[in-house]
DNA sequence: CTCCTATATAACCCATCACTTATATAAGCT
DNA sequence: AGCTTATATAAGTGATGGGTTATATAGGAG
């Protein structure tokens, strides 16, 4: 599944927002998502699997719990793809500053 | 259709890349896409419709032709959503520089 | 007016996705 | 061992998306 396909789902985007704050237990994620989207625990677990399989998150076991952590690499790839369009909404000098700040790390991506 | 759903399709991403170079006729887009993806003219036209309906592109009539132009607003929204994660792959000062360069235009998006 | 080119739309099909309910797995407690 | 909690997986379903072929629309050329 391509990074942008993963980001196409609002539940997954929300999970990534939550994980941006720091590590979370599966149950904590499930509670928030269930409150906001009214879906079952199984559905949330399936979204977590998609995030794992696509490299957006990793999990580690803590007793009977799973702790999820954000993995930024696929997000960075998505960001790199979008970077070529940034010239359209920033002034040229500002765009240049952005590129300098990003260290021109991403070339020939996608 | 959410911006990230639109970006989830490789054909549409490729069309956006082409339009980033400048305006193109529907037929020019169709030729490139057909060569790269082996799909029909109708399929390309449907992708162009998705891009129009979701605000990623506009078209104007030139005789029997349609000229397509990139519209950056939805791409900027997608970029704004990703911006909250940039801290994960840039150093803090670099991330700050990026935010300054972007003029902190996007707050509370999505 | 008719024909051709350029493009979009309609109708249909099939695969995939997001969801559900039901069940499995595994750890901790008593 | 048996129960409970935490989480994942299996199986099935309905909706949607992206493709196809066929057709419509509209402008320019003869």
From TrEMBL, chains A, B:
InterPro entries: ArsR-like_HTH (IPR011991), HTH_ArsR_DNA-bd_dom (IPR001845), HTH_MetalResp_TranReg (IPR051081), WH-like_DNA-bd_sf (IPR036388), WH_DNA-bd_sf (IPR036390)
This protein's record includes keyword DNA-binding: yes
The keyword Cell wall biogenesis/degradation appears for this protein: no
Domain HTH arsR-type: 1-107
MF annotations from Gene Ontology: DNA binding; DNA-binding transcription factor activity
Alphabetical UniProt keywords: DNA-binding, Transcription, Transcription regulation
PANTHER family in the record: TRANSCRIPTIONAL REGULATOR, ARSR FAMILY, TRANSCRIPTIONAL REPRESSOR SDPR
NCBIfam families in the cross-refs: HTH_metalloreg
Protein name in the entry: Winged helix-turn-helix transcriptional regulator
């Amino acid at each position: 599944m391509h990074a942008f396909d993963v980001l196409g789902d609002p539940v997954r985007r929300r999970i990534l927002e939550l994980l941006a704050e720091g590590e979370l237990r599966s149950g904590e994620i499930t509670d928030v998502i269930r409150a906001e989207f009214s879906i079952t625990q199984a559905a949330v677990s399936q979204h977590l699997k998609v995030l794992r399989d696509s490299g957006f998150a990793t999990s580690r076991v803590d007793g009977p719990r799973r702790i999820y952590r954000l993995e930024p690499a696929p997000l960075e790839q998505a960001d790199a793809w979008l970077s070529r369009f940034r010239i359209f909404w920033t002034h040229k000098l500002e765009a240049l500053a952005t590129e300098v700040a990003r260290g021109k790390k991403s070339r020939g991506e996608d």
